[in-house]
Structures are given as structure tokens and as C-alpha cells.
Amino acid sequence: MNLELERYAGELAELREKVDVYEQLLHRIQMNAEVVMDHEVVGDLITNICRWSYSHRCGNGENSEAEQDAIVRRAFDHLLITREPWRVRNKKLKEQNEKDSTSNTAGTV
User: Fold this and answer.
1) Disulfide: which of 38, 43, 60, 102 matches 86 by Cβ 3.0-4.6 Å?
2) Could you read off the pLDDT of 41-60 as tens digits, one per residue?
3) Which of 33, 51, 55, 52 is closest to 42 using CA atoms?
4) Residues 6 or more apart whose Cβ sits within 8 Å of residue 85
């Protein structure tokens, strides 16, 4: 009976992790689509969703169950990975431009 309870507890923990990731994913999509309006990030998130979905079907049964689980897990772990939001990219670009402009004028008299 204890083994069954331990298995159930493990499955419950995995389901909680999945729900947490899915909720974060949906919040990120909404935030970047409607608030920040950073469509590159939304595109990254949707691409990750597509890869996760495909990972469940890829291999046409050629992979062992463990291999298929590893493929799905890798795709799941990448669901929330995106490029930096546009504000961060713009700030870094502005800093780089300022650095470049000061280094270009420093040598002229």
C-alpha cells in the first residue's frame, strides 16, 4: 500500500509542476501579447508550445518509452524559454550605441 501511495504522491507532484508551468506560460503569452506587446517573445513561446506538442508524436514509435519520455521532458523544460523582452534588448542596444559613439569620438580632435 505504501508503494502505491508513494507513486500517487509522485504523480501528484508532477501534475502540480505541469500546471505551474502551463499557468506561467499562459501568463507570459498574455503579458507579452497585450501589455508589453512584444510579439517576438510571443512567437518564441508559441514555437516552444509547438515543439512540446510535436515531441509527443515524433519518432513514430521508434523510440523506447524512456527515450520518448526524455524527448518530451526536454521540450517541456523549454516551454518558458524566450529571448529577452524588448525593453531589455532596447536598453542594451542603447547602451551599446552610446558606448560606440563615445569610443568613435574619443580619438578625434
Assistant:
1) 38
2) 899 999 999 999 999 998 88
3) 33
4) 32, 36, 38, 41
Alpha-carbon gap, residue 77 to 71, rounded angstroms: 10
Residues 6+ apart with CB under 8 A from 29: 42, 45, 46
For residue range 15-44, list pLDDT tens digits in order. 999 999 999 999 999 999 999 888 888 999
Q: What values do phi and psi take at 91, rounded to 5?
A: -65, -45
Predicted pLDDT of residue 1 = 62
Amino acid at 42: V
Q: How far is the C-alpha of 69 from the C-alpha of 59, rounded, in Å?
A: 12
Burial 67-87 (b: 16+ CB within 10 A, else e): ebeebeeebbeebeebeebbe
Contact 8, 38 (CB under 8 A): no
| Residue 75: half-sphere exposure toward Cβ, Cα within 13 Å | 19
Rounded to 5 degrees, what are φ and ψ at 9?
-60, -40
